[in-house]
Amino acid sequence: MSTDEYKPYDQFILFGDSITQWSSSQERGFGFQAALQDAYMRRLDVINRGFAGYNTAHAVKVFPKFFPTLQTATVRFLTVFFGANDACLPGNDKHVPLPTFKENLKTIIHHPATVVQNPRILLITPPPINEYQLEGFDESKGEVHPTRTAKYTKLYAEAVREVGSELKVPVADVWTAFMKAAGWEEGKELPGSRDLPNSDVLQELLTDGLHLAPEGYRVVYTEVMKTIRENWPDQDPEELPLVFPVSAEAPK
Question: Which part of the chain is the SGNH hydrolase-type esterase domain (predicted)?
Answer without folding.
Answer: 14-219
